Amino acid sequence: MSTFFPAFPVGGGVILIAFFLVLNTVAQGQQLDGVQLCGTEEPAQNLLPPSESLDHCFTVQTIFDNCTKIWLRVNIHFFLDDNCEGTLDPLGNETISPEKAYEVAESLINSANDRLENNREQWNQVPWGVLLDQTRYCVPFRYLLSGVYVHCSTTATNTSASQLNSFFQANFGVNVSSEYNCYIAEYVGSSTGVAALSGNRLAVENFAPGNFNHEMGHCLNLEHSWAEDFVSDTPEIRFDYDFNCDGDVDDTFSSPGIGKEKDRQCYVYFYDTHFPLPPPIDYNGDGVVDIQDPCDPDLPCLPYPCCQWEYNNNNIMAYSSYIDCCSAYTKGQILRALDHLSTETVCEFIEDITDTCHPPKANAAILPFENADDCNYCLHFEHSMNETWYLLEFLEGANLVHSTGWVNEQVGVYCISQSVKFPNQYDNGFQGGHTYTAKLTVENDCGDAETRELAFTLPVLSCVSDVPPFDFKDLAPNPFLNNFTYEYETSETGNLKIWLISLSDRNNAELIAEETDLQPGVYQQTKSTVALQSGVYALVAQFNGGIYSINLVKS
């Protein structure tokens, strides 16, 4: 049964509009695959900005006529439990590693942009009293991934997305006056999403691009198209249907029946490939099929309207399973959204307006559960958007510690790893316990660039293998003079590299460097050290990815 939640004003009168997943309205209370529904809590209001405030940062008609792209900043937020464990899927249906946060966020934004790029014509307008217009209008706005955030909060994972403003935006919103914030959170109940009408926040509980675009549509001041939405070219497809064929449409059948007979709409065409045969109707939910074939019922029952294409709607702001595959924004909806975006306050959410290259966006983060237990400390620069070059620099104070130089590709995860030369420290001069600034600069094909900085403190290395496959058994003499002998054991087949490194030399010079493939066993080597200066040394072994060392002294 479809459910419409009662109205409640939030955030100074801003309306929250929720997107619902509908139970099968016609067949034994079963769920229709991919069918979605949303409900509004108050009568729609005309929230178009006053005419004197329009065209603040662009001219609406010029943008529409040329389809110049307007890029809107969006932050994506994920939630784990307090211990930073769990899945990025708020419903728990999929096990998605938290390390995949950037990848999932970029995939959602890119998929949503693909739907905007491939806007479809509006279906079935003529029967509903609007002008026929089968044009595929170009949608000018696009989304730009501005930031990805992973929060470890059991309270958040247990809070319904219906608390969009009072909880999620209040506690986790980032740059709320210039970036839209999208929360990946469960809506307890049948909803799959919620948004603030003409607002700066939304929540979705799945990764369907149509769901995201629908809720962003509300943020852009678009109402549901099946009701009064102040747009003249959207079809208001609603109908009444006498399910029990008693001559009136005044009945309501409780769940798991079909609900109200009045004010219905279609979520899917019954002859769609998902439904090769129309489902039978159990209208009162008693387990007995009342109408075997709703498209060809026995008299006095009439065919169910959803057996006809003209009752099915693909508008992005409709209740429809078609918004993921073939959604439509009409000309009126596009102009209304542009009017909203052109106002002075909303213009602050625009990253760029461009006809040429897509704007680059530098993203940088350290996931909250990152540590160096695996001998690596990883920074997530991946899935910055639209760049073809990147430069990654690390500074300690004003001093440059390390630089990748300009690299002709998209930036990815960058891990600062344990040093082979100096096992208790990191490669490239990084030191545990020191604070650094990572400076990421990204550039697109047009030479447009953006830089983001990220400060972090490297933890002291503490990575130890529980059962190491390599072990130094003995080293003698120590201190040594003209030679020393060392013995080691391997418990598995692998590649061994051995270095002798001077710890007294600030450059950590490699005095011995050897490599060999080994079978399990015990081995012994003797090294001449006549030419070595007195001082402290480290004998370092790298075996199958693990690093092992032992210190020794020449007297």
What are its keywords?
disordered N terminus; 555 residues; 8-stranded mixed sheet; alpha+beta; elongated; 4-stranded antiparallel sheet
In short:
By secondary structure, this protein is of the alpha+beta class.
How does this model look, in words?
By secondary structure, the chain is of the alpha+beta class. 11% of the residues lie in helices and 28% in strands. It has seven helices and 23 strands. It has helices at residues 60-66, 101-117, 154-157, 164-172, 209-219, 323-326, 331-341; strands at 16-20, 37-40, 69-80, 141-152, 180-184, 191-196, 201-204, 252-253, 259-260, 350-354, 376-380, 389-396, 399-403, 413-417, 435-443, 449-457, 470-476, 483-490, 494-502, 510-518, 521-528, 535-543, 546-554. Strand 12 and strand 13 (399-403) form a beta hairpin. Helix 1 packs across helix 7 (331-341) and helix 2 (101-117) crosses helix 5. The N and C termini lie far apart (86 Å). Residues 1-14 and 19-55 have low confidence and may be disordered.
